[in-house]
Amino acid sequence: ERGLPFDDVIIDEGQFFPPELAGALAALHAQGKRVVFAGRDVDWRGRPWLTTANVLALPEAHIIRLRGTCANCGSDSASRSQKLAPDHTVVPYDAADDSIDVGHHYRPVCVSCWYETTPGLPASLCR
User: Fold this and answer.
1) Burial 23-59 (b: 16+ CB within 10 A, else e)
2) What's the whole-model pTM score?
3) Full DSSP string of the chain
4) Are 29 and 7 in contact (CB under 8 A)?
5) If pLDDT is split at 50, 70 and 90, which confidence band does 50 have?
6) pLDDT in the model for residue 99
7) What are 6-35's pLDDT values in tens digits?
8) Ordered DSSP codes for 89-120
9) What is the pLDDT of residues 55-91, one digit of tens each?
10) What is the pLDDT of residue 27?
11) Residues with catalytic annotation?
12) Quick one: which of 10, 8, 31 has its CA closest to 21?
């Protein structure tokens, strides 16, 4: 049997792939391939991405969490994002998904700034 003609599999923006990707990556890893998955843990509302959650649950996964620079306070612990409207204001948490055509305009923020500067958070999420 002939092996696959590559040694590495690299996935970027993995959260946008189907949730079944985790099983395919596990199978490739079992065949001796080196697998790298880069993707967001949560969306702009702080809800988990299913595909990323499935990859994180793989027992053979070696997890490295990277953080960005918070666009609000400048800390190096940005792990969340905020969706921005065309005028660069933060889209309210409670806005309908299709109510604002923003394209792909987001900014990285730390958890504290996400809670402090995201308008429309439900009471259950307010600190």
Assistant:
1) eebbebeeeeeebebebbebebbbeebebbebbbebe
2) 0.83
3) -PPPS-SEEEESSGGGS-TTHHHHHHHHHHTT-EEEE---SB-TTSPBPHHHHHHHT-TT-------B--TTT--S-B-EEEEB-TTSPBPPTTS-TTT----S-EEEE-HHHHHHH-TT--GGG--
4) no
5) very high
6) 63
7) 889 999 999 999 999 999 999 999 999 999
8) PBPPTTS-TTT----S-EEEE-HHHHHHH-TT
9) 999 998 888 899 999 999 999 999 999 999 888 899 9
10) 94
11) 13
12) 10
Amino acid at site 97: D
- Tokens of residue 3, six digits: 């092996």
The token pair that represents 38 in the structure block: 């880069």
